[in-house]
Design brief:
heterodimer, A: mainly beta, 5-stranded antiparallel β-sheet, globular, B: 110 residues, mainly beta, 7-stranded mixed β-sheet, 4-stranded antiparallel β-sheet
Chain lengths: 113, 110
Amino acid sequence: GENVEQHPSTLSVQEGDSAVIKCTYSDSASNYFPWYKQELGKRPQLIIDIRSNVGEKKDQRIAVTLNKTAKHFSLHITETQPEDSAVYFCAANSGGSNYKLTFGKGTLLTVNP
Amino acid sequence: SQTIHQWPATLVQPVGSPLSLECTVEGTSNPNLYWYRQAAGRGLQLLFYSVGIGQISSEVPQNLSASRPQDRQFILSSKKLLLSDSGFYLCAWSETSRQYFGPGTRLTVL
């Protein structure tokens, strides 16, 4: 089955700096890669996603890049703000009509004011 | 628009007691439904998923079971809870690739 590795497990940045979280996946059939943000005690919220036919996608301060050859994808957050502090999860879908996702173990991002 | 509900929001149960958690989705038909568990400070573990009424696939063998008695209702059950069943239980739905999570049930087994 699919295996998703996520790094780093914790990341601390100063407000205004950029943050990058990286994930690798094992199944070359994976074709969908979402990122979720989970604030303490809350549900994970989908913040951005990318499909395998696209190399990069951007939404305001967040962007995701995908390298299919290397089987890795990354989340980039620019001009970080304290409210960006949360746990971020990457995931990969191996395809099929059940749309199952395999999640990385998460990255705790802390943005220091 | 679609809405997903879970109840109860929190639950404290003794070891060996039964469990029933409910998830319902509004505003969509025949969604895929999923149950995840998140242990404290940990990642998301897929427990069960369903692509239709009465169709349940189990990802992790354990003392939990799931049922889908109606199109938009997904139930997670246990006959006898273990201490290790404590965690944050999240239901999710999807029509296509995108999955959306419910508010979750925080279960403490004592």
